[in-house]
Amino acid sequence: MANSAVGVIFSNVHDENIPELSRHRTMASIPYGGRYRLIDFSLSNMVNAGIDTVGVVTKYNYQSLLDHLGSGKDWDLARKDGGIILLPPYSDETDAPYSNRLEALKGITGFLNHRNEDYVVISDCDGIARIDFADILAWHEQKGADITMVYHEEEGPVDSGYYMTMSMDEDARVTGLKINPRIKAKAKNNVYINVMVLNREFLTNIIQDAVTRGLSSFGKDILSKNVDTLKIYGYGFKGYYAGVDSLSKYYQHSMELLEKDVRDELFGARDIYTKVRDSAPSKYADGAQVKNSLISDGCEIEGTVENCILFRGVKIGKGSVVRNSIIMQDSVIGSGVQLDCVITDKNVVVRDRRHLAGCAELPYFIAKGRML
Amino acid sequence: MQRKKECVAMLLAGGQGSRLYALTNNIAKPAVAFGGKYRIIDFPLSNCINSGIDTVGVLTQYEPLELNEYIGNGQPWDLDRSFGGVHILSPYQAKKKSSWFEGTANAIYQNMAFMQKYNPDYVLILSGDHIYKMDYAAMLKAHKATGADCTIAAIEVPLKEASRFGILNTNADGSIYQFEEKPKQPKSNLASMGIYIFTASKLFKYLKEDDENPASSKDFGKDVLPAMLNAGEKMFSYRFQGYWKDVGTISSLWEANMDLLGEEPNFDVNDPDWKIHSRNPLAPPEYIGEHALLGNSLISLGCEIGGTVINSVLSSNVVIEEGARVIDSVLMAGSVVRKGATVCYSIVDENTVIEEGAAVGEDKEAGAGIAVLGRNIRIGAGAKVAGGQILDKDYKGE
Fold first, then answer.
1. Are B195 and B165 in contact (CB under 8 A)?
2. CB–CB of A280 and B292 under 8 A?
3. Structure pTM?
4. Which residues on chain A place their C-beta less than 8 Å from a C-beta of chain B?
5. Which residues of chain A register pLDDT less than 50?
């Protein structure tokens, strides 16, 4: 399926779900899993499916994303033809930047029209999964679908401020799409995971049509209202899926990386690419006690670390005990500190002998660059 | 105007490194893994880019495949340039004469065209056998200040070891009056580090003369430098203070790895002011298990640690299963130590598997020396590999 599809990644959609972590960055550039950013998962899935042209749609706060992506070489996407193409909002004096997905898509029709691939794979950055886009593209082609929407069966309510549930007939054709339905605890639902495949020309046509008719919502006006007329199919993703739609879900799913089968599925079969930083290997001092933790490169550990995820360049001082916590890049934990269920953003300093604790449902969050 | 580079570096990377035994069966010495995620050649290459030298010729000869692949287009060192950058220079077939590189001076001489393409004022000669951080720009500055034709980086070594090195006998101003290659009775303890800066025109002149001299062994230390000195060229030493280690032997390679450990390591690779660049492994963060016991060790990305790791350096994707013990050892990428196995005072090369209950090496204090396991081999369950033993084939035990 190589080169039959072009990728489009929305970097800002769902920012509002995790205001703590997206205050200074896009959803796409939220750090995850010790050395990754959320966009690395969708981007790597695309690269691993042979997609070598990916448009990244940005809106605001995208400095950290630009810094992360660079020329795209770390994803093997520094190409003469294609590669990573950043698509910032297009606006002039009369036109404000886009305010919804439809306007965003309208803003990139130029990009889409200039490509010659048959299909477009659209993905947001709110999910962590090893999705085989080559398989979905083959399935899409075989079904002769206009649109293939990917869903995952989820139990209980969804935290996101905007979500869709899907119902399908036995041929997997979508028969109903509900936006933000009430979901009871324990109820099982096929939740759309913000990944879809469309025929490229079909997509540019419906965007044009929607703009002419003054429509504003891609989900409501285009998808939901037209399930009877459009050939929309639902592809069930059966693997591990971590939807990051709130800080507590972010915490909960991050901790799942400490389970071997989750790591094996995400990292085992194919590579997840990310920006390279040239950090040294991590250093474990005499007296360091580390249990059940993921540790990135460049860390220096002198204290106790249990059930934690440490990002690059983190320092844990002597006599400190850090449990059930996520410590992001270059944060420094002094000595004699006790942390439990804490998330520190990047470059946080926790001075000697501070004690901080949250709980699994409500982890204690320390914003980027704070000193405590 | 012709484009030029002020200084071009030539890195001698053809060495077989025969004293590293099984570790260099199929790879050149500069490609040998070091310090978890690095290879020896990362150090001179990183020094070059950190010193602002962006044109490097890497001269390869012995088993170049892995080294060539590792260097690639030079992007990890920021040496992928449209003018300059890193270039692999292999022996080639020429119209008049084709030959392997015979000696260090001949290797450089055969690549005269490469250097001349950049019309350099200075040429920096480096070797790919040493672990050190050095600012070549400061050395070049000294070379210009003294107005030397050749500047040789030098370091003080213990006098009893001085006969292993090229020794510089210098005047008070640092100028060299005598050059002795591995003298039996050294007059000074100032050793050449094998790092030279030449004024390009002089280098080209003396390389040509050396090539035409049938008596010459085509070696910098033995032939070119003495010839320049005899002809009265201005030669200066440049004192280097800092960590510098030849990793040409099993024990020095092991020691250099151990020098990275400790609260105040002898050699710090985690130095934000002088980053050592390398081709990074594509691997998730390392996972440290529920029953792991770690002390004074460096561990790289992708490792899965279930057992005990003390005073050791682990490269990427190493697996230490529960109940396994690794002490005073260097494990290279992808090696596996299964349940209940022990590895003691050893160097284990890439992708080698030590099966359950096997015991590799002996306690450092026992005096038997460092055990070495070559790459891609399997040590059978329960097998014992004695201290000091070197294996490059599967081993099932007696």
1. no
2. no
3. 0.92
4. 33-35, 73, 258, 260, 263, 266-267, 271-273, 276, 278-298, 300, 305, 309-310
5. 1-2
